[in-house]
Automatic annotation (TrEMBL):
Protein name as it appears in the record: Solute carrier family 15 member 1
Similarity comment: family membership: Belongs to the major facilitator superfamily. Proton-dependent oligopeptide transporter (POT/PTR) (TC 2.A.17) family.
InterPro entries (UniProt xref): MFS_trans_sf, POT_fam, PTR2_symporter_CS
One CC-aspect GO term: apical plasma membrane
PROSITE patterns cross-referenced by the UniProt entry: PTR2_1, PTR2_2
Biased composition (Basic and acidic residues): 600-615
Top-level taxon in the UniProt lineage: Eukaryota
Membrane topology: Multi-pass membrane protein
GO biological process: oligopeptide transport; protein transport
Lineage: Eukaryota, Metazoa, Chordata, Craniata, Vertebrata
Single GO term (MF): symporter activity
CDD domains linked: MFS_SLC15A1
Compartments it resides in: Membrane
C-alpha cells in the first residue's frame, strides 16, 4: 500500500502491518502503568510507612502529572524529534523509572540489621520519587505520540480502518490494565527477600518494569515498517508567536477606521504564512470544543474514590467468590473489552442502517449523557444503602476484651485479594505461647470477642473464644453497582474512543500529537476538579453529591451539544493541500482579484466538511 508521502507499507487484511507493533506496544505499556499504579498506595503506606493522607496526595499528584506531561511529549515530537524518536527516548526514561521503583522496593538493600525493615528510609523514598517522576515523564510523554503515530500509519483513503485502529487501541489499553490490576496485587502478596521475607513490592514493580522493556523492544522491532512523518521545526514556537502577533496586531488596529477581519487570527496575515494561520484555526476550534469535556472525567474518575467507598458499605459476597470493594473497578475494563466490539460491529452499523447520522460529536454528547445517568444510578444505590443504615467499612474493626491478667497480642491473617472467603483467622500470642481461632464475617459487620481468663494459650482456642455482633453485616449487594458501571463504561466508549479518533482526524498534519495532548489534558483537569469539588461541596448526604455531579454533567452536556452543533468537520489534509497548491501558484501571473477569490474559498473550506463519512459537505455536529 502506498501511504502518505509515497511511503510503501506492508498490509494485512487492509491494515498496515506496522499497526500490530503499535497496539502490542500499547498493551504492554498500559500493563506496566496500571500494574504499578495498582499497588502504589499500599507501597507508600506499608513499605515507606506514610500515613493515609500523604499516600493519597502523592498518588493523586502522580496521576495528574501523568496526564500533564503529554503536552511536553507532544511538543518535543511535533517540533523537534518526531513521534518515532520521542517514543523511543521517552520509553527508555519510562523503563528506567520502573526499574528504579522496583529497586526502591528491595528492603534488603538498606536492611543492615536484617530485621525485615529498611534502615535507611531516605534512600527508598528518594529512589521511588525519582522513579515516579521518570515514569510520569515517560508514560505521559509517549501517550499522545503513540496514538497519533498509529493514526499516521493509515493512508487518507483508510478512514474506516483508522477508526477501527482507535477502537483496538482502546481495547489494548483496557486489556493491559485489566490483566495487570489482577496480577500485580497477587505478586505483591508474595513474600520475598534475601535476609528476611517481606511483602514482595519489588516483584510487583519489577514485572511492570519488564513489560515496559518488552513494549520498547516490540516498538523497535517494527521500526522498518513505520511511516515516520518528519517534524516541521519549532512548530509550537511558531504557533505561539503567530497567536501573539495576531493579538497584538488586532490591538494596534482596534480603532473603527480599520475594517474588521473574519477571524481574529486573520490579523496575523500581515506577517505569517496563511497555511500556518489556517492550521492554528483548526487547532483552536477543536481546543475550544474541549473546554467542557473535563467534567466527563471528573465523574469518571470517581469510580476509584467515591464508588469504591460506596462499595465498602455493600455486601460483596457473590457465592463462591467474595469481591473486595476496590476490585469492583475492574468491571470497567472488563466492560470495555465487551462493549467496544459490540458498539463497533452492532450498535453503530445498526444506527447507520436506520438512516441516522451518528457523528463523532453526537456520540460524545450521548457518552456524557450516559455518564450522568450512571451517577443517577449511583445516587439511587446510595439511597438504598442509607435506608438499610449500614456502616462504613466492608470489614469493620473487631474489638477484643481481654479477660486474662497478662497482655495478649492479636494479629489476623492476610485477606487474599481475589478469591477470598470472609473467614478471618486471629492469632493470640502472649510470650512464647500462642493459639489461633477463625470466624466468618458478613460484609460491614463488627464483633467484640471475649478472651476468657481461663484461656490456655498453646492449645486450640477455637471453642473458647466467644463473640458478640456489634454491627450487622451490609445487606445491599455490590451487584447493584453494575448498572452504574455499565452506564459509565458505555459512556466512556462513546466519549473517549470517539474523542481519541476525533482529535486525530481534526488536527493539522504537523500538530497531531499536540491535539492528542490537548485531549489528554481534559483527563488531567477532570482529576483536579474531583479534588476541588469534593473539598468545596461538602454535602450532608452522599446521594445528593451524586445528584449534583449528574446535574453538572447534564448542564455541561447541553452546552457541549450546542457548541458541537456549530462545529463543522474539516479534512485537514485537503485544506493544507489547497493552501500549499496556492503557494506554488504564487509565481504565476494571476491577477489579484482571482487570488483573493481563491483565498476566500479556502478560508470558507476551513468551516466546511468535505468528509463524505459525515454525510455531505455541510455536516454539522
Ligand atoms: C481506568 C481503566 C483501567 C482504564 C480506562 N477505561 C481508560 O481506558 N482510560 C482512562 C483514562 C483514559 C484511558 C487511558 O488511556 O488509560
Amino acid at each position: 500500500m502506498v501511504n502518505k508521502s509515497g511511503f510503501n507499507s506492508k498490509e494485512v487484511c487492509g491494515y498496515p502491518l506496522s499497526i500490530f507493533f503499535i497496539v502490542v506496544n500499547e498493551f504492554c505499556e498500559r500493563f506496566s502503568y496500571y500494574g504499578m499504579r495498582a499497588v502504589l498506595v499500599l507501597y507508600f503506606k506499608y513499605f515507606l510507612r506514610w500515613d493515609d493522607d500523604l499516600a493519597t496526595s502523592i498518588y493523586h499528584t502522580f496521576v495528574a502529572l501523568c496526564y500533564l506531561t503529554p503536552i511536553l511529549g507532544a511538543i518535543v515530537a511535533d517540533s523537534w524529534l518526531g513521534k518515532f524518536k520521542t517514543i523511543i527516548y521517552l520509553s527508555i526514561v519510562y523503563a528506567i523509572g520502573q526499574v528504579a521503583m522496583a529497586v526502591s522496593a528491595i528492603h534488603d538493600i538498606t536492611d543492615t540489621d536484617r530485621d525485615g525493615t529498611p534502615n535507611n528510609m531516605t534512600f527508598h523514598v528518594v529512589l521511588s520519587m525519582v522513579g515516579l517522576f521518570l515514569i510520569a515523564l515517560g508514560t505521559g510523554g509517549i501517550k499522545p505520540c503513540v496514538a497519533a503515530f498509529g493514526g499516521d500509519q493509515f493512508g487518507d483513503h483508510q478512514e474506516r480502518q483508522r477508526r477501527t485502529f482507535f477502537s483496538v487501541f482502546y481495547l489494548c489499553i483496557n486489556g493491559g490494565s485489566l490483566l495487570s490490576t489482577i496480577i500485580t496485587p497477587i505478586l505483591r502478596a508474595q513474600n520475598c527477600g534475601i535476609y528476611s521475607k517481606q511483602k514482595c513490592y519489588s516483584l510487583a514493580f519489577g514485572v511492570p518494569a519488564a513489560l515496559m522493556v518488552v513494549a520498547l523492544v516490540v516498538f523497535i522491532v517494527g521500526s522498518g515498517m513505520y511511516y515516520k512523518a518528519k517534524p516541521e521545526g519549532n512548530i509550537m514556537g511558531d504557533v505561539c508567536k503567530c497567536i501573539g502577533f495576531a493579538i497584538s496586531n488586532r490591538y494596534k488596529h482596534r480603532s473603527k477606521q480599520y475594517p474588521s477581519r473574519e477571524h481574529w487570527m486573520d490579523w496575523a496575515e500581515d506577517k505569517y504564512d496563511k497555511l500556518l494561520i489556517a492550521q492554528i484555526k483548526m487547532v483552536l476550534k477543536v481546543l475550544f470544543l474541549y473546554i467542557p469535556l473535563p467534567m466527563f472525567w471528573t465523574l469518571f474518575d470517581q469510580k476509584g474514590s467515591r464508588w469504591t467507598l460506596q462499595a465498602t458499605t455493600m455486601d460483596g459476597n457473590f457465592g463462591a467468590i467474595v469481591i473486595q470493594p476496590d476490585q469492583m473497578q475492574t468491571v470497567n475494563p472488563i466492560l470495555i473489552l465487551t462493549l467496544v466490539p459490540i458498539m463497533d460491529s452492532v450498535i453503530y452499523p445498526l444506527i447507520k442502517k436506520c438512516g441516522l447520522n451518528f457523528t463523532p460529536l453526537k456520540r460524545m454528547t450521548v457518552g456524557m449523557f450516559l455518564a450522568a445517568l450512571a451517577f443517577v444510578c449511583a445516587a439511587v444505590v446510595q439511597i438504598e444503602i442509607d435506608v438499610s443504615r449500614k456502616h462504613l467499612t466492608y470489614f469493620n474493626l473487631t474489638q477484643f476484651v481481654n479477660g486474662m491478667n497478662k497482655p495478649v497480642n492479636v494479629s489476623t491473617s492476610e485477606i487474599f485479594p481475589f478469591l477470598i472467603i470472609i473467614r478471618a483467622t486471629f492469632f493470640l500470642q502472649s510470650g512464647q505461647l500462642s493459639c489461633a481461632f477463625s470466624r466468618d464475617f458478613g460484609f460491614g459487620s463488627s464483633y467484640t470477642f471475649f478472651i476468657p481468663s481461663t484461656l490456655s494459650l498453646g492449645s486450640n482456642c477455637q471453642e473458647s473464644i466467644t463473640g458478640a455482633e456489634d454491627i450487622k453485616p451490609n445487606s445491599v449487594h455490590m451487584a447493584l453497582q453494575v448498572p452504574q458501571y455499565f452506564f459509565i463504561t458505555a459512556g466512556e466508549v462513546m466519549f473517549s474512543v470517539t474523542g481519541l479518533e476525533f482529535s486525530y482526524s481534526q488536527a493539522p498534519s504537523n500538530m497531531k500529537a499536540v491535539l492528542q495532548a490537548g485531549w489528554l489534558l481534559t483527563v488531567a483537569i477532570g482529576n483536579f476538579i474531583v479534588l476541588i469539588v469534593a473539598e468545596v461541596a461538602k454535602l450532608p448526604k452522599q446521594w445528593t453529591e451524586y445528584v449534583l455531579f449528574a446535574s453538572l454533567l447534564l448542564c455541561v452536556c447541553i452546552i457541549f451539544s450546542i457548541m458541537a452543533y456549530f462545529y463543522t468537520y474539516i479534512d485537514p489534509t485537503e485544506i493544507e493541500a489547497k493552501f500549499r497548491r496556492n503557494v506554488g501558484d504564487d509565481d504565476d501571473d494571476k491577477n489579484d482579484k482571482q487570488r483573493k477569490l481563491e483565498m476566500e474559498m479556502m478560508k470558507r473550506d476551513l468551516d466546511r466538511s468535505d468528509d463524505e463519512h459525515y454525510k455531505g459537505k455541510q455536516t454539522k455536529m
